[in-house]
Each structure stands twice: as C-alpha cells, then as structure tokens.
C-alpha cells in the first residue's frame, strides 16, 4: 500500500563479458496471490558504467510514471566460477594444497570476510517430468546461494539431461542454504518448474 516503497535490498549478479550487457528491471504490483500488474520497466547498460565505484542512478520507468533509485557497483568477479567437469578448479593437487594453506587455523583471521567457498558439481538429472506436448522437456539447472545465482546450459528434448558443470561460490554466511532448481525452458514464456532441492551448508 505504498506509492513510494523502500526495499533496501542488495543483490549480487555475476556479470561475465561474454554475456549480454543490459540489466533489465521490472516493477510489479501484486493485489493478491493471483493478480499481478506490471508497473514499468527500465534498463541499465552495464558496459557504460564506471567500474570499481558505486554508481547512484535514478531510472525513469518506461511508458509508466515513476522512477527507481538504485546503487550499482561493477567490480571484478572474485570467488565465482563456472567450468566443465574436465577442468575442475579443485582437480589440481597443488591448488588443493594452496587452499588448505589459505584456510588453515593460523590464517583464520587474515581475512574475516573470507569464510570459505562451496564447489558444486552438477552432473545430471534422471526421470524428469515431461513439460512439452512431445513428452520431453528442455531442462536447465539454477543454483542459488544467498543472493548469488548461477545456471547451467539447457539440454533440449531430454528427460535425463547431463550438464557436467562445476560451479564455485564464495560463502558469505555459513547458515545459508544452497537451492538447486530444475526448470524447463519455454521460449519467450517463463520457464516451467520441474523440481527443487535445498541443502543447508551446515549439512555438508
């Protein structure tokens, strides 16, 4: 019930130079669980922003009244990676030794924010639900840890997809929960939900 909402939320997006350069933002109004209305959209050209500083932007909503006030910082991406299974970042014994040294007891207080990292190997899914009329699905997998999100590529027309990808996340809160969700890609429409699993970090 507000025309001037304040959210004060922070989100981390992993921007890679080979991905699209526009940040798309939508503002929605929700009357109840069933009725939603789009209040406006705006776009930010990430490549046009100065790096290594916080940019304060007031963005007018396109074709609708109102604007968004945002703070956007573009900084080098650290601690996050996506790789193929054959070049797994922890596969090299010398790298494992460096990491063991980095997190040994005597270095515990060297960098308080560096709690650790989580590496997830997404191998495959089995016996997924068929979301298309053809009796198949176009599945992809989304991994979320806190406000960090990474995803696999889509395997088309397959109920037993193999992704064989390795994802590495920096851990910001040891009480976070890793959420792994499988969706069916549906062209321009929102993806269909195929299943989800939640893994508390403290259970690993």
TrEMBL record:
Cellular localization per UniProt: Membrane
Domain C2, chain residue ranges per copy: 1-59, 93-204
The keyword Transmembrane helix appears for this protein: yes
Membrane topology of the entry: Multi-pass membrane protein
GO cellular component, one term: synaptic vesicle membrane
GO-annotated molecular function: calcium ion binding
The keyword tRNA processing is assigned to this record: no
InterPro entries per record: C2_dom, C2_domain_sf
Principal location: membrane
UniProt KW keywords: Calcium, Membrane, Metal-binding, Repeat, Transmembrane, Transmembrane helix
GO biological process, any: regulation of neurotransmitter secretion
SMART domains: C2
UniProt similarity note: Belongs to the MCTP family.
Full protein name: MCTP2 protein
């Amino acid at each position: 019930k507000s025309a001037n909402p304040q959210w004060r939320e922070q989100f981390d997006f992993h921007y890679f130079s080979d991905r699209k350069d526009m940040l798309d933002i939508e503002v929605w109004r929700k009357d109840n669980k069933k009725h939603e209305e789009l209040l406006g959209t705006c776009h930010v050209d990430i490549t046009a922003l100065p790096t290594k500083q916080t940019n304060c932007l007031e963005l007018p909503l396109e074709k609708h009244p109102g604007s968004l006030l945002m703070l956007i910082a573009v900084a080098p991406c650290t601690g996050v990676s996506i790789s193929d299974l054959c070049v797994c970042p922890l596969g090299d014994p010398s790298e494992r030794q460096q990491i063991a040294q980095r997190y040994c007891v005597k270095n515990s207080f060297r960098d308080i924010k560096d709690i650790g990292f989580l590496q997830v190997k997404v191998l495959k899914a089995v016996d997924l639900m068929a979301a298309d009329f053809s009796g198949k699905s176009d599945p992809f997998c989304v991994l979320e840890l806190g406000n960090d999100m990474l995803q696999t590529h889509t395997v088309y027309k397959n109920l037993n997809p193999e992704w064989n990808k390795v994802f590495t996340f920096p851990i910001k809160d040891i009480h976070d929960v890793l959420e792994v969700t499988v969706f069916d890609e549906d062209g321009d429409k929102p993806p269909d939900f195929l299943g989800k699993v939640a893994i508390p970090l403290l259970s690993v």
